[in-house]
Every structure is written in C-alpha cells, then in structure tokens.
Specification:
The chain is 61% helix and 12% strand. The chain is an alpha+beta fold.
C-alpha cells in the first residue's frame, strides 16, 4: 500500500475518532444545557412570582399571608414566556386540579432515534428537579419547582447534536481533504527518490536529485546521491581491476600458446616422423606387418593430437577480431563450425549495422561471447538450429548486442547459476567493459544476450 494512502487512511481514522469524541461531548453538553435551562426557568419564574406575591400582599393588607396562597393569576402568558422549551414549572402548594405550566415543546427538534434515547437514559440518567423559594424572607410564600420533560429534553439534545455534528462533519471533511493534499504534496519528492534508486539498480549510479525543501527528504536524497557515487566509484575500480586481470590472463594465454607450440608441436612432429619411418621400414619386411599397423595408429593418433593442439592454440591466441575485424572474424567462425558440423545443427548468422569501426576490446569481447556461446550450444545441447545475431545500436544506447539462440532446450536458471569457466569468463569480460550478460528462455531453448557499450 502506498505511503500517501496509508497516511490518509490514518488521518481519516483520527478524524473519525475526533468526530466521535465531538459527538459524545455534544451529547453531554446538550444534556447539561437542559439542566441549566431548567434551573434558569425556575429562577426566572420564582423571581416573577415573588414580585406578584409582595404586590398582592400590599394591596390586600387586611388578609393574612395564608389567605394569599396560592398566588392568584400566576399561570399567565407572561409566566410561560419565562419558561424554557421542554421545561415544566409547578407552584407549591398547588391548587386543586392544577397541572404544571410547561414551555413550548413542539417543533423544538427532530424526533431522536430509539437507540439514542435509550443510550442517553442509560448513561446520563434522568434530569433532576430544581426548586426555588418564592421569597427568601417568607418561607410560607411557596416554592417553584422546575423539571425537564424527558422526551423534550432528549429531542433538544438530539437537535443540538445534529447542529454541531453537521458543522463538525463539514470541518472534518475539509480538514481531511486539505491534509491529504498537503501529505501528497509533501511526499511527492519520494517518487523522484524511488526513480533514482531504480536507475541505480539498472546500473546508472550517478543520478542527480533536486534539493528538497523537507529536511528529512533532503537527507535521504543526499544519502542516495552519496551511495550512487560510492557505487559508481567501486564499479569503476572493479572494471579497472577486471581489465587488468584480463590483460594478465591474455598474456598467460599467449605464453601458454607459445610453450605448447614450441614444446608439444615439435615433439608431436618428431613422433609423427618416427612413426612414418617405422611404418616405411616395416612395410619392406614381410614379417613386420603388425609393427607397420601400430606405426600407422601412432601416426593417426599424433595427427589427431596435432589437430586438437591447433584448435587449442587458436583459442589461446588473440581472437581474429583484433586482426580481421569483427564482421570477417564472425563469418570465419560460423564457416568453421559449419564445416565441422555439415549435417546438424544449422547455424545462421544475422549481422545488423556497420561494424567497420568496432575494434579493440569491444570486438574481442563480442567475438569471445559468440565463440563461447556457439561452443556451448554445439557441445552441450541437442540443438537443431542456432541463430547468432549481432546488432549495433546507435543513438543514446550506443552499444553492441550479441545474442545466441538455440532450440536445444535447457534450464536458463541452472545455466545462469553454473560456475563454468566459459560463462564466467565472458561475463567478466562484458562486465569489465560496463556491459551486461543475461541468460533467458528462448522459444524452444535458451538465449544468451550480451550488451557491450561501444564507448568502453
């Protein structure tokens, strides 16, 4: 999952938790607001009835205070206007058949769902009644008791929650959107870092990154740049060491070729001469036929060893690509294999591009890759057809592509992991020139492809 989506998801979880907390807070505040409205209603009605009580007491001076109770005409429209919606007020002592005076409760809010009403009653309980004396100086003046209507109180709380939650929900959505845009903008440079790492994985180590505003991303970018520089330096040093190793190996191969030619060649020539002499001498004598036969077998074995020695010397010496050029040397290579394997398999050579200026280490390496791959296909597979493709790619790539495909089957993974000297040697040669070697499945066999930069 992308980091931006993870952060946005976590932000949404936080917003939902905050919205839930705001809803709980709004519910409790609405519940307490009903209690405050109840207390305020009781206070306002008691103050109004106190004024009415003392006025009646002054106007009816010939009456006792007991005859003033209950206070006359207290259930008026003016008194009702002092009562908050959803609150009922009762005067004590009350008269006969006297009901509480309640504030307007119709239209105070939408009907709450049953689960909300049950939750409020379960966790917050009922509203307590509030009693206020009409007069603090006269305890016989009576008492005003205010109590909240449970249904109206829950409706008020629900409406209060709806009003607050709508605003909170809009703010939460706005915050989530703005924060998501801010997070996406802040993490946008991460894609540049990932692209740089991918280029480094493909061998382009020195990849420049822009300077990021975020300190953390700037530190990561700097670390990636330093890592690329170190990898590039290590790769260059390894290429230099590998080229030096190949030079030493070439010198050893030439020295070994000289030793084989000087020592084994001369000795084999001498053995062949002795065998011919023995054969010729034995042929003149009638009873020495078996000796002549042995001499002929020695001559045949010597000739075979000399032919193998010539092939070995050809492989040990410098490849013809350094002398004849890449195109001519590849044609000679394919023709030599065709002459040795006249029936099977069929070898095709496909040259694409101009190879006239391809010389030096690039030409030698391309020739060695083609030679080794053809040798492996002919000796270690049951291929019926082998295709050797050499392509010169111009433009930004500016590389030489050598590809050998056969239809002899085989497991590409096992071949790639093999520790044979042939594949190891050409892989080292290609890597030393900054190229790459890959082994993959072909249509009915294996495909070995080497990419060699021409600027090497």
């Amino acid at each position: 999952m992308r980091l931006v989506l993870q952060l946005v998801a976590r932000l949404l979880v936080i917003v939902i938790l905050c919205l839930g907390g705001a809803t709980v807070w709004a519910t409790i505040d609405a519940y307490h607001s009903v209690d405050r409205a109840t207390a305020a209603s009781a206070e306002r009605v008691s103050q109004a009835l106190e004024a009415l009580y003392w006025r009646e007491l002054l106007l009816r001076g010939n009456r006792t205070r007991e005859h003033l109770l209950p206070v006359p005409e207290w259930r008026t429209t003016q008194t009702m206007s002092l009562i908050s919606p959803g609150v009922c007020v009762q005067f004590e002592p009350k008269g006969e058949f006297e009901n509480p005076l309640c504030g307007q409760s119709k239209g105070i809010g939408a009907s709450p769902p049953h689960w909300f009403a049950a939750a409020v009653e379960t966790f917050l309980g009922d509203h307590a009644a509030v009693a206020r004396p009409i007069s603090a100086r006269s305890t016989t003046a009576g008492t005003v008791t205010a109590v909240a209507d449970p249904d109206a109180a829950i409706s008020l709380a629900w409406q209060h929650i709806l009003d607050n939650v709508h605003v909170a929900l809009l703010m939460a959505v706005a915050i989530a959107l703005l924060a998501s845009l801010a997070i996406a903008h802040a993490l946008a440079p991460a894609q540049l870092i990932v692209t740089a790492l991918q280029r480094m994985a493909n061998g382009h180590y020195r990849t420049s990154l822009p300077r990021f505003r975020s300190m953390e991303l700037a530190m990561i970018g700097q670390a990636v740049g330093e890592l690329g520089d170190r990898l590039a330096q290590a790769t260059e040093e390894r290429a230099v060491l590998t080229r030096r190793l190949l030079e030493i190996r070439s010198d050893e191969r030439r020295a070994l070729a000289r030793e084989l030619h000087d020592e084994f060649g001369q000795n084999l020539t001498a053995i062949l001469a002795f065998a011919n002499t023995i054969e010729a001498a034995s042929a003149q004598e009638q009873d020495r036929g078996d000796v002549a036969q042995d001499a002929r077998m020695i001559s045949k074995a010597t000739l075979h060893i000399m032919a193998c020695l010539r092939g070995t010397l050809n492989r040990l010496r410098h490849p013809p690509a350094e002398e004849l050029g890449l195109e001519a040397s590849l044609i000679n290579l394919v023709d030599s294999w065709r002459s040795q394997n006249a029936t099977q398999p069929m070898i095709q050579l496909d040259l694409k591009g101009d190879f006239a200026d391809v010389r030096g280490a690039v030409a030698a390496t391309a020739y060695r890759v083609a030679q080794e791959c053809l040798t492996n296909s002919l000796r270690h597979s049951a291929a019926r057809e082998i295709v050797l493709r050499i392509e010169r790619r111009t433009g930004l790539e500016n590389a030489l592509l050598v590809r050998v495909e056969d239809d002899g089957g085989g497991d590409a993974a096992k071949v790639a992991q093999s520790a044979g000297f042939g594949l190891t040697g050409i892989r080292e040669r290609v890597t030393a020139l900054g190229g790459s070697l890959s082994i993959a499945h072909a249509r009915r066999g294996l495909s070995v492809a080497a990419t060699i930069p021409l600027a090497a």
